[in-house]
Write a structure and sequence with these properties.
With 262 residues, the protein is mainly α. The chain is built from nine helices and two strands, in the order H-H-H-E-E-H-H-H-H-H-H. Helix content is 67%, strand content 2%. A two-stranded antiparallel sheet has the order 1-2.
């Protein structure tokens, strides 16, 4: 009988150990995921700033918000999905491209600013490959919008699993049920409440990741320059024709800034 009891006790300890390892392992894994996600969100702030500056550079050339919204509309891009930051710092101006007329220089500036924004949007949404400094010959992908959104969904699935399927009270009830004598003694003496969803579970709950609360712009991919160059040139000619003085002013500001003048 002693051998059977020893075997049963050993089996009980092994099962409890496995349950504890699974329970705490799942929680530790989720904690690590949430921590890593938070760091990725913080690092992604650089990319948000890069996007904002590229948008501001193009919008400065387009003179005002109404014209900028019309610009996206003629490219079949939903203007409501483009950020319109107020008083945002634009990319550092580059030299104004050469052309025989001011109108043509303006067209080239708009084309260049648009293509810059298109490339930044692609990096923002889809990431950019770079050489892995820790593994020569391998490539890694930068943090990007679509990855962050997908990770938020994965984390929330794990949060649901840990909170609902591996609840603290559920684990404790299961373990207690393996020792009927101890369970009976606790019932007589009044043990802690193991009601599902009670205070104990609430104290141990993981909060879901609120991706929408980050307020990250869901910017759509922009058409390739070769596909919309003629449309942009035509739009630029129309803006120049109706706002020549304003275009002259913004081009001169760019020229002075790129030359390092105040």
């Amino acid at each position: 009988m002693s051998n059977i009891k020893d075997f049963a006790d050993g089996l009980h300890q092994d099962v409890v150990s496995d349950i504890a390892e699974s329970y705490f392992g799942a929680r530790k894994n989720l904690e690590d995921m949430i921590k890593a996600y938070g760091q990725m969100v913080a690092d992604f702030g650089f990319m948000v700033g890069k996007l904002t500056r590229a948008v501001a550079a193009l919008h400065r050339l387009l003179l005002d918000e109404a014209t900028a919204r019309e610009f996206y509309a003629v490219l079949n891009v939903d203007p409501s999905r483009i950020p319109f930051p107020q008083d945002a710092e634009a990319d550092k101006p580059v030299p104004v491209p050469f052309a025989f007329t001011l109108g043509k220089r303006y067209e080239k500036c708009v084309l260049r600013a648009y293509d810059r924004l298109r490339k930044v949007v692609d990096e923002y949404r889809n990431g950019r490959y770079f050489d892995d400094p820790d593994s020569p010959g391998r490539k890694r992908l930068t943090i990007h919008y679509l990855r962050l959104r997908a990770l938020a969904g994965i984390i929330n699935e794990e949060v649901h699993k840990v909170n609902d399927e591996i609840s603290t009270t559920g684990i404790l009830r299961y373990v207690k049920g393996m020792d009927p004598e101890q369970e009976e003694r606790e019932q007589i003496m009044g043990g802690m409440s193991l009601t599902e969803g009670g205070d104990l579970d609430k104290d141990m709950f993981f909060a879901s990741v609120d991706f929408e609360a980050l307020n990250l712009p869901d910017v759509p991919e922009l058409p390739a320059l070769k596909d919309v160059e003629d449309v942009i040139r035509s739009f630029g000619r129309r803006v120049y024709a109706g706002n020549r003085e304003a275009v002259v002013r913004v081009i001169e500001e760019m020229r002075s800034a790129s030359a390092g003048k105040e």
